Amino acid sequence: MTTNASYGKKLSAGTDFPVMKVTNLDDHTVELGKPREGTDWQMIVVYRGKHCPICTKFLNNLEKKRARLIDMGVDLIAVSADSKQQLQEHIEDLDVNFSLGYGLTTEQLGQLGVYVSDPRSPEETDHPFAEPGLFVVTKEGKILAVDVANNPFCRPDIDTLVDGLQFVKNPDNNYPIRGTRDNS
């Protein structure tokens, strides 16, 4: 029987992003939540893995906006719980030039507060995997934007997302982090 679980508290806008390390395809360690040289923000895309054609399409479409994101100072990385071998197999279907990380652990999935699903069969994949999550982190390490879904077909529209980040990054707009009010 397949069960779905959420391994952690959902992350909130305006709070500190839980900096964590992942390994990219070149076997380099990358810190999630720490924009890399030449950028001051980081977009972290958590995707389900190679078994998900919707993830493949989303990542390939995101590549079309990579240059614009970099021009805005937004570092881009996509990560999953897949193994290195699974990522190497997936790269054949991906046409991306941004960093891809692999091997997110159950503990890291919990820190990210993403929904987690078990595979429906061994043919799908061989491990629990994250459902989609997207985080934009400022240079101060604060979560500017968070989008967490419990299925592959609920994701932000890439054009709207990038246009919104362009607006927020413009200092003339003086746009604060939204959704920080605790209404409990």
From TrEMBL:
<dbReference type="GO" id="GO:0016491">
    <property type="term" value="F:oxidoreductase activity"/>
</dbReference>
<dbReference type="GO" id="GO:0016209">
    <property type="term" value="F:antioxidant activity"/>
</dbReference>
<dbReference type="InterPro" id="IPR036249">
    <property type="entry name" value="Thioredoxin-like_sf"/>
</dbReference>
<dbReference type="InterPro" id="IPR000866">
    <property type="entry name" value="AhpC/TSA"/>
</dbReference>
<protein>
    <submittedName>
        <fullName>Redoxin domain-containing protein</fullName>
    </submittedName>
</protein>
<dbReference type="InterPro" id="IPR013766">
    <property type="entry name" value="Thioredoxin_domain"/>
</dbReference>
<feature type="domain" description="Thioredoxin">
    <location>
        <begin position="11"/>
        <end position="170"/>
    </location>
</feature>
<dbReference type="Pfam" id="PF00578">
    <property type="entry name" value="AhpC-TSA"/>
</dbReference>
